[in-house]
Every structure is written in structure tokens, then in C-alpha cells.
Amino acid sequence: MNEKEMKDFSAKLMQESKTACFTTIDKNGYPHTRAVFNLRNKEQFPELVKIFDAHKEDLLIYISTNTSSSKVAHIQSNTAVSLCISDPENFRGLTLGGAIEIVTDKNIKSALWLDWWDRYYPKGKEDEDYTILKLIPKTVEVWYKGKFKFQFT
Amino acid sequence: MNEKEMKDFSAKLMQESKTACFTTIDKNGYPHTRAVFNLRNKEQFPELVKIFDAHKEDLLIYISTNTSSSKVAHIQSNTAVSLCISDPENFRGLTLGGAIEIVTDKNIKSALWLDWWDRYYPKGKEDEDYTILKLIPKTVEVWYKGKFKFQFT
After folding, report:
1. Nearest-CA distance A51 → chain B (Å)
2. Where are the alpha helices (DSSP H) in chain B?
3. What is the least distance, in Å, from the CA of A19 to any CA of chain B?
4. B25 contact residues in A (CB cutoff 8 A)
5. Over the stretch B75-103, which tens digit does the pLDDT of each residue have?
6. Could you tell me the pTM of the whole model?
7. Fold of domain B3-151
8. What's the alpha-carbon Rg for chain B, to the nearest Å?
9. Which of A25, A35, A86 sits opposite B31 (nearest CB)?
10. What is the mean pLDDT of residues B98-122?
């Protein structure tokens, strides 16, 4: 795969896969990997497709989480993360790596907000426990009929 | 969930889930998460069920990989790993943490060997590129109708 093919493959897999595992590193240097929503999945999050359509090239992804979560605590001392999106049935997968940011822009948080998330954040999009993380990947690894890798410059 | 319930839940989910994501840390301190076979999945690996039946309490897991893989390279300088096994459709997941080992016991490697793995290791169970990793978890986190955590002592 060349870089264009890898980006196309990645954008497509991110739209199709329900499985996303996100890793942060704790203050003792141990990794912690847990399942998170793949907000790029178009079946599960059709309202957000437009937002991500502008990011087919850079593969940006947002992750929703509780401000009180271990993710946010870990990121505050170490921004290095890994996100794996996979389709184990078809032996397809990708891993994004880079430094993650906590989004402070209320417009972005509002644009991503979905009403049914009030089960996680009872006070709605203004809830202090509602956090959005933003990863603009620096590295992408792809598994599909081989292993491929590229770095964003 | 108490400790017994967490162990039972974990052993069951490990038998049922096809999705396993495994994280190692590279020499620059960046985590790398990728999909791996869940060798405890009883549908995909029925031949191995007996091996893991002896480990319902300690939740031991083996991971098969190429000796030439990034996993093995990372583990040689940092044994801290995380393994996430999840069932995103049913909002169930677990994360195992601890220090991983490279198995040198040929009996264990032989007992785990499956003939169809010759597509990955052409020389069979004696292939130098066939590596088995062993994780005896120190921490377990469980997500199912809440979040639960325990540490093995």
C-alpha cells in the first residue's frame, strides 16, 4: 500500500469498525488499554459523519470520556497514546499514535454532543464531567494482507 | 462485583470475545496497541480450551507472535503491557495489566501449536520466528454495568 491507499483504507475502516481500543500510560509507566466509542463509525454515529468527512486526510479522531476518568488523569502527565481500530473477523486493523489533547473549544464539544449521552453526563454538554479528547495522529500502522506504516510529516 | 464474580466474568468474556488488543511500550515511551488472537476464545481455538481451563483463577493468557515482531522488540526493553478483551456490542470489557514474559519452555510452545499457524511460521513449532508470550495479570479491570477493579496479591 502507498500512502494514499493507507489513508483511504484507514478512513474506510474507521467508518466501519465498532471496535476501538485506546491506550494511555499511567504515572508509573504502565499502559492501560480500554474499549472506547469509535466516533467515526457511521452506523453508530451517523450524526457525526460530516464532522469527520473533513478529516479523511489527517485521520483526526475525537474520543468522548468522563473528565473523572483514568484517561484524563493519565493524559495530564503523559500525552503519548495509541488507538487501535480493528475488524478481527476480516483480519483488518490500524493503529494510530501520537500526542493527544484535551479539547477546550466549546464549539467542538457542542458539535459532537449527542442527546443520549446524558446517561454518561447528566448535565448535558455543559457537564463538567464531559470531556472530548483530540488525536491528530503522527503515525499510522495498517494491517491488511501485510503490514504497512507511515508517518505524518 | 466481588473478586469471585470478576474472575468468573473475566474467564467467560475471554472465552467468548474475538477482540483482543495488546499494548507494548517502545523504547521512546510510546504505547503501541494492536489486535492479537485471543487464544482463550473457545470458538476460534477449541483445541486450547483445556490448557486455559487450568487458569480460570489466575486469568493467565498466552499470546502468539512472530519473534521478529515489534511486540518482542518492545518487551525486551520494557515488560509492562496491557491486554484489552472486549465485546463492544454488549458493552462488556476487561483489561489485564502486568509484566509479560517470553516463554522458553518448548513443551508449552508445542502444546499451544496449531497446524494452520504454518502460514505465519513456515517451519512449524520449531520455527525460530514462533514466539509465545505469557501474561499472568497483576491487575484486572472490568467494565459491565459499572467499572470494577482488583489486584492479584
Report:
1. 23
2. 3-16, 49-53, 70-77, 106-112
3. 6
4. 25, 29, 31
5. 999 999 999 999 988 889 999 999 999 99
6. 0.95
7. Pnp Oxidase; Chain A (2.30.110)
8. 15
9. A25
10. 97
Q: What is the pLDDT of residue A146?
A: 85
* Nearest-by-CA chain A residue for B138: A30
Burial B106-143 (b: 16+ CB within 10 A, else e): eeebeebbeeebeeebeeebebeebbbbebebeebbbb
Rounded distance, CA A112 to CA A98, Å? 22
Q: Closest residue of A to B25, CA-based?
A: A31
Confidence of residue A113 (pLDDT cuts 50, 70, 90): very high
User: Distance (Å) from the C-alpha of residue A104 to the closest C-alpha of chain B?
Assistant: 24
Mapped onto helix, strand or coil, the DSSP state of residue A91 is: coil
Nearest CA in chain A to B140: A32
Terminal Cα-to-Cα distance of chain A (whole angstroms): 18
What are A's interface residues with B at a Cβ cutoff of 8 A? 18-25, 29-35, 78, 80-84, 86, 88-89, 93, 95, 97, 141, 143
- The C-alpha atoms of residue A41 and residue A62 are separated, in whole angstroms, by 12
Distance from CA of B41 to the nearest CA of A (A): 12
A56, A69, A87, A92 from A142: Cα distances, Å: 15, 29, 12, 8
Residue A134, C-alpha cell as written in the block: 483530540
Pairing relation of β-strands A130-135 and A92-102? Answer: antiparallel
Tens-place pLDDT, residues B27-79: 999 999 999 999 999 999 999 999 999 999 999 999 999 999 999 999 999 99
Phi-psi sector, B145: left (phi>0), alpha (psi -120 to 50), beta: left
Q: Where are the domains of chain B?
A: 3-151
Asked if this assembly's ipTM is beyond 0.85, the reply is: yes
> H or E stretch including A24?
strand A19-25
Confidence of residue B10 (pLDDT cuts 50, 70, 90): very high
Residue owning grid cell 475502516: A13
